Amino acid sequence: MDSPATPNSSSQTDGQKIDANSLSIYGFGFVLSAAAFLISQDLPNSVEQQSTLILFMFPILVTAMLGGLRPGLATTAMVSVCSALLMPSATAYSTAPPFHVLPWSMLIINGILVSLMSDQLHQSRQREREKWQELAAIENRLWHSDTLFQATFDYAAVGMALIGLDGRWLRVNRKLCEILGYSMEELLDNTCPALTNPDDLQADSEHAQMLLNKEIDSFSLEKRYIHKNGHFVWVNLSVAITYKSDGSQDYFISVIEDITERKQTALLLEQSEAMKRAILDSVSSHIAVLDKHGTIVAVNKPWLQFVEHEAHCANENEGRCNVGANYLDTCRKSLHCSSDDAALALKGILAVLNNQNDNFKLDYDCSMPEHPRWFSMTVTPLFNDIGGAVVSHTDITERKLAELALWQIKEDLSATLQAIPDLLFEIDASGRYINVKTNQEDLLVAPSINLLGHTVQEMLPAEAAQTVMDSIKAASRKGTDYGRTIILPLQGSEHCFELSVARKLDGNGLPQHFIVLSRDITERRKTELALRQQTQQLAENNAELHRFNQAMIGRELNMIELKMKVNQLSEQLDLAKPYPLAFLDESSRSFFNKQRCNEL
């Protein structure tokens, strides 16, 4: 990108052009003077001196008109030299009439006058040229100023508007549209008073009228506009008025700064100040404000209630911890019954009051005979000219009980993990070992310290590693996965492990981790194999026994059939039935007949 030319460089360029033009004019004047001299030499003697003088005036006129004073004077000098060459010799001056010298003198005088007049003309033209250049520069500055105003108006970080004297929006920028929620077209079809809160309209109109009456040059006030959605928008409005060239008023220029957030903040601060005492009284912590000497200057309601309760239980005067009492003395009096905690509290409070520490915190046991109780004391300095500190006692009994319960749960879990024979691993989604817990290091493919940071693909056989990753993927989808088995070569023999995988819940956006329980089921697999073999043997024995029973049953059925036939023949011969078959009832007979039909 070319850099703009500086004024000095422009002046130097113009000067170089002027020098070149002047030299050419000087040369042109010399040539014309020489030509006039040569022409005058060739003129016959009959030509009058006036004609020769007119011939020499031509170079003077041309160079003076083209170059001004200096070229004109230079040409006049050259013509004077030429005229001197044409003058009669010095010996002839005594006999020469005066009119021979006078015309040549007039030639020189006329040359000087013409040069002066031409210089005045050149200066006038130069002034005219400079005037036009100045007008062009002013026009260029006006254009840049208008462009800058357009950019400032359109892209300002605050709302800007041109408002007519009748209150109509003449022009608005995008920020104002954003503040009020209207499009540019909607605003231009509306008026400023129509979008002003009725409660602020009078003050706005009064200030505008003062502008119109020229009582003030500008004004600034806070007012509320009505947003397109119906809510109020607080703005800081700054207004001035512009004038036409004839002095009449043209339109208002308004700068609108959105201060809704600032107003809301100020309102919240006011409400905060008004509710400060109520908030202090509503918190559960016992709060007291100490001056730099340790004297209690303010307390909240829970502090008073606690002091009253403790004094009632201990049959003591509650005033020793109330406003006006010295809290440091109270701590000193407690040294005999709670030396460790009271001494630490006294030392911490003194360190904060003396600006030796930025804060102090102490958790202490304040258990009663009938129930446990813990408190947390926090001491923070008062950042003001008079110094002091804020002492806060918070009941942390529930937290302490929860911590104790959590500790007990951790102990129970640790004992449980030590008791169960399973290997416990924490593995991420890529298969990398994050944590290993086991009391059977001999069942690991490598020492636990060597597993951490490595992946199952690096530490396990390919088939086993693939099974683990499949189980992790399944748990990632379903939450859990059970029953997959892997075979690992350990201690010279193969061991079978059953996997149970669960996805570990994590609400911090970290990569998923999985808890993997690996149980050695080698002995169980051997037992299961032995049971399957025994079951198969038992099934074979049952089949053989079934075949034997079938044979025995068939034989018994044949005997019963033969006995039934003998009984029938005896009955036909009117003889007694030799074989009692009364035990065969109707259902037995039907079953017997059915069996015989099946055999047939």
CATH topology annotation of the largest domain: Beta-Lactamase
Instruction: State the CATH class of the largest domain.
Output: Alpha Beta
Task: Summarize the biggest pleated sheet.
Answer: 5 strands, antiparallel
CATH arch. level architecture of the largest domain: 2-Layer Sandwich
The domain tally reads 4
Strand content: 15-25%
Give the neighbour order of strands across the main sheet. Answer: 2-1-5-4-3
How many beta-strand segments?
Answer: 15
- Rg over CA atoms, rounded to whole Å, is 60 Å
Ranges where pLDDT stays below 50 over 5 or more residues in a row are 1-15, 89-99
Shape: elongated
Number of helical runs?
A: 17
Helix content: 55-70%
User: What is the fourth-level CATH superfamily of the largest domain?
Assistant: PAS domain
- What is the terminal-to-terminal distance? 116 Å
Q: Would you tell me the structural class of the helices and strands?
A: alpha+beta
Write the layout of secondary structure elements.
Blueprint: H1 7-42, H2 49-67, H3 69-86, H4 98-155, E1 159-164, E2 169-172, H5 174-180, H6 184-188, H7 198-212, E3 218-226, E4 232-243, E5 249-258, H8 260-282, E6 286-290, E7 296-299, H9 301-314, H10 327-333, H11 339-353, E8 360-365, E9 374-381, E10 389-395, H12 397-419, E11 423-428, E12 433-437, H13 448-451, H14 456-459, H15 462-478, E13 480-490, E14 493-504, E15 513-520, H16 522-572, H17 586-599
Helix pairs in contact: 1-2, 1-3, 2-3, 2-4, 3-4
Relevant terms:
5-stranded antiparallel beta sheet, single chain, alpha+beta, Beta-Lactamase, 600 residues, 4 domains, elongated, disordered N terminus
